[in-house]
Amino acid sequence: MTMLIDKQKVANSFSRAADTYDSVAELQRDIGHKLIDLLPHSAPQRVLDLGCGTGYFSPKLHSAYPSASLVNLDLALGMLRFAREHRSVEQAYWICGDAEALPLANNSIDVIFSSLAIQWCENLPVLFNEIKRVLSPGGYFVFATLGPDTLKELRQAWQQADSFTHVNRFLSLEEHLSALPESLVVEEIQEEERVLRYRQLKELTDELKQLGAHNMNAGQQTGLTGRERVKRFKAAYEQQRLVDGAIPATYQVYYAVLHKPLEE
Ligand SMILES: C[S@@+](CC[C@H](N)C(=O)[O-])C[C@H]1O[C@@H](n2cnc3c(N)ncnc32)[C@H](O)[C@@H]1O
Asked: Residue ranges of the domains in the chain?
C-alpha cells in the first residue's frame, strides 16, 4: 500500500506548474465542482482545502461556508504563493505542509475538502489517520482522487516501449477502503470514468507538463529517455487511437464523503 513517491519532486513539479495549471485544468475544475456539490450542509467553523493548488476552490468554499475560516494547505510553495496572490478570500490561512504530517491541532477542522491531491500521497493509512486526528468529532472529509485506470493508455504505451515506470500507479477503491481507520465512516462513494480526447499525442503530453502531473514515483529512470524508446512509445500510443481518430486519455475518478462520528 505504500507508494514510492518522491515528495520533493511532487512539490517542485507543482510549484513550477503554478502559472500554467489553470489554463489546462478543465477536467480538474469539473471534478472539483462536482465535489463542492457533495459538501455537507453544515455550519463549520474551520474548513481545510487539502492540496489547494492554485486556490481555484477557495472562493467556492468561502461561498459555501461564508462564516468559516478557510485553511489552504499545499505541499508546493509555488502553488500556495500563486493561490494567495490570485484567490485570497476573507478569513483565509495559507500553510505549506504535507497531508501525511499535517501541521494542525487535533480535532481542529470541521470540513476537509480535497480535490485530486491525495493520489500523490505515499501511505494511505498514514494519511487517513492524520485526517481522523485533525477532524473535529462530527466532521467530514470530502475528497476526489484517481483510480488505477487513470492514464492507462499512456502506461500501456510506455510498457510497450521499455521496462521503466513512466506513469504513476494509482490505488484502487478497495485499497482506499481497506486503508480507512474504523472511526472514519463512509457516507458516500461515487466513481466516474472520463475519457479526454486529443488530436495529437503532443497535446496530451504538453498538458500533463503544464498541470505539473509528471511521474512522481521514486526510483524511476533518470537521464534522457532514449530516442528509440520514445519512438516506440509514440507508435504504441498511436495504435490506441479511437475509431474517429482521437487520441484518448482515460481518467478514473473516485468521489467520497467520510464522516467522523461524534463519539468513537
Ligand atoms: C492536481 S493539483 C489539484 C489542485 C486543486 N485541488 C485543484 O483541484 O485544482 C494537486 C495538488 O496537490 C498538492 N499535493 C500533492 N501532494 C501533497 C501532499 N502530500 N500534501 C499536500 N499537498 C499535496 C500538489 O502540490 C498540487 O498543488
From this structure: 7-152+167-197+250-259
Cβ(82) to ligand 1 under 6 A? no
**Is 18 close to ligand 1, i.e. is its CB under 6 Å away?**
no
Return the sign of the alpha-carbon dihedral for residues 214, 219, 220, 223.
Answer: positive
Residue with cell 486529443: 198
Predicted confidence (pLDDT) per residue in 85-126, tens digit: 999 888 899 999 999 999 999 999 999 999 999 999 999 999
Cα–ligand 1 centroid distance for 88 (angstroms): 17
Instruction: Enter the CATH code of domain 7-152+167-197+250-259.
Output: 3.40.50.150
Q: Which atom of ligand 1 is nearest to the CA of 14?
A: 25
**For residue 238, is it left (φ>0), alpha (ψ between -120 and 50) or beta?**
alpha
Question: Which residues are within 8 A (CB) of 132 and not within 5 positions of it... i.e. 6 or more apart?
Answer: 181, 183, 184, 260
